[in-house]
Amino acid sequence: MAPRSVTSATISEDPLAYEDKHVHSVYEQIAPHFSSTRYKPWPVIAAFLSNIPPGWVGLDSGTGNGKYLPLPADNPSRVWTVGLDHSLNLLKIARNAGGVYREVVQGNVLDQPWRKASFDYAISIATIHHLATYERRKQAIQRLLLAVSPSHGRILIYVWAVEQDDLSKRQIPVVDDPHSVGQPGKDVFVPWVLSSSADSEKLQAEQVFNRYYHMFAKGELERLVSEAAKELGLHVGLKSESAGARRGIDFEQDGWERSNHYVELRCWAV
Questions:
Q1: How many Cβ atoms are within 10 Å of 91's Cβ, its own excluded?
Q2: Residue 83: which of 30, 122, 27 has the closest Cα?
Q3: What are the tens digits of pLDDT across the range 184-240?
Q4: What local confidence, expressed as pLDDT, does residue 202 receive?
Q5: H/E segment holding residue 141
Q6: What is the pLDDT of residues 241-250, one digit of tens each?
Q7: How far is residue 125's CA from residue 102's CA, in Å, rounded to a whole number?
């Protein structure tokens, strides 16, 4: 079957209702099939979790089927990651990720169900791009910043990129120049095809579910993180260059991996 094209999307209603219709409802319906395709950790994320100090407690905000909850693979018991997701059907799968009972919580990534600075680290993988407005995406990053320790917290964020690699199954509508910093991202519907076989005739009946995504342009995630941090009164940059600021974040790394933009942040305080 040929890949289905991504189509442009327009947010024409209340963003929460829009996300309920075009994100949350979809994942509830496709959860088992979606989970069966999400099992291999991405290298940068696996490396990040492998470098977390023993004894730390973390948050996986938008955990999906929980594939990152058992990491690091060499000794998953040395760190403890709590999974948060809106989809109850995905959480039922995540609860037993890796064949071990996991701590998972149902909720929106914009919720604050825990005290500030409850976690040592946080990851948000392929989640923030499902939020339908700039302000809601920024707020989700602020929830991560508030969730981790202000003195040593570490955060890793992944979002889908306008710039897709050669292995991508997504055919993205043309933009002016996806490699150019300063270009806006793109609101799109990405189809998920769910097939069921008719036993008598072995015919494939397809259901197509369109999921909303904001696909990020180059540099957009870094700018969003910087603005989110500054609104919380955080300095963005090295502690040694903070000019007297008491708290801040530093970009440990940023990059592009397999059609995703990512940033790794480290919090600091004096």
A1: 22
A2: 122
A3: 799 999 999 886 654 445 445 678 999 999 999 999 999 999 999 999 999 999 999
A4: 47
A5: helix 134-147
A6: 888 899 999 9
A7: 18
How far apart (Å, rounded) are the C-alpha atoms in residues 26 and 161? Answer: 21
Task: Quote the Cα angle for 188-218-35, to 5°.
Answer: 50
pLDDT of residue 65: 95
Closest CA to 62 of 45, 44, 43: 45
pLDDT above 90 for 4: no
Over residues 77-124, the pLDDT tens digits come to: 899 999 999 999 999 999 999 999 999 999 999 998 999 999 999 999
Please give the Cα distance from 138 to 251 (Å, whole number). Answer: 16
Burial class (CB in 10 A: 0-12, 13-18, 19+), 123: buried
Instruction: Find out whether 43 and 51 touch, Cβ atoms under 8 Å.
Output: no
Nearest to 155 by CA among 136, 127, 189, 133: 127
* CA atoms of 143 and 137, how far apart (whole Å): 10
User: For the domain 10-162+212-269, what is the CATH superfamily, name and number?
Assistant: Vaccinia Virus protein VP39 (3.40.50.150)
Overall average pLDDT of the 43-58 stretch:
96
CA dist., res. 176 & res. 173, Å (int): 10
pTM: 0.90
Domain extent listing, the chain: 10-162+212-269
Neighbours of 96 (CB within 10 A): 13
